[in-house]
Amino acid sequence: MRADAEKNRSQILTVARDVVTEHGTDASMRDIARRAGVGLATLLRHFPSREALFEALLCTNLDALTQKADELEASTSADEALLSWFRELVAFTQSYRGVVAMMAAAHTNPDSPLYASCAAVHAAGARLLLHAQGEGTARADMSGDDLFALITALGWAVDQPSFAPRADHLVHLITSAILTSPSSNDAKQAAC
């Protein structure tokens, strides 16, 4: 890639991160191009669709969540790993308003640019859940799809201004429903 093209791409991503943080996933591609100081055609040359732009913005975060699942699984108890990872994923969904709907649609659509990263996050969560179920610390009647659906629902809820202040409490309620014996750290947090 030419130096000026790489500079434009980098500028677009920097501006897009700010615009999406401000306005969520419905941010205007035209506004992103304008604020980046490039034409819409230049933006579309680098990112031919909204999903392609979001893949570039989000894949680093989603890949980090997948890696975090591996680290937690290797270093902590199964229930603590699932709980910590769940909290990190919910925190990530709060950083970009509307991202959960995009992730929910992408994880089953192989044609989506976000598919690989979302499918990897889904698989990581399913693996952590399975590990906790194997140790008897998570409900046996749940699947990875159920876990992903709960994360999506919670992500949507905390996206709403009326529920955002209760995000920690909502995470506690849902994780209490997933785990058969809430961890001591979670119990201490709930008591606060």
Automatic annotation (TrEMBL):
InterPro entries: Homeodomain-like_sf, HTH-type_TetR-like_transc_reg, HTH_TetR, Tet_transcr_reg_TetR-rel_C_sf, TetR_SbtR-like_C
Residues of the DNA-binding region: 28-47
HTH tetR-type domain boundaries: 6-65
A Pfam family that the UniProt record links to this protein: TetR_N
Keyword Transcription: yes
Keyword DNA-binding: yes
Keyword annotations of the record: DNA-binding, Transcription, Transcription regulation
Gene Ontology terms, MF aspect: DNA-binding transcription factor activity; transcription cis-regulatory region binding
PROSITE patterns: HTH_TETR_2
Protein's name according to its UniProt entry: TetR family transcriptional regulator
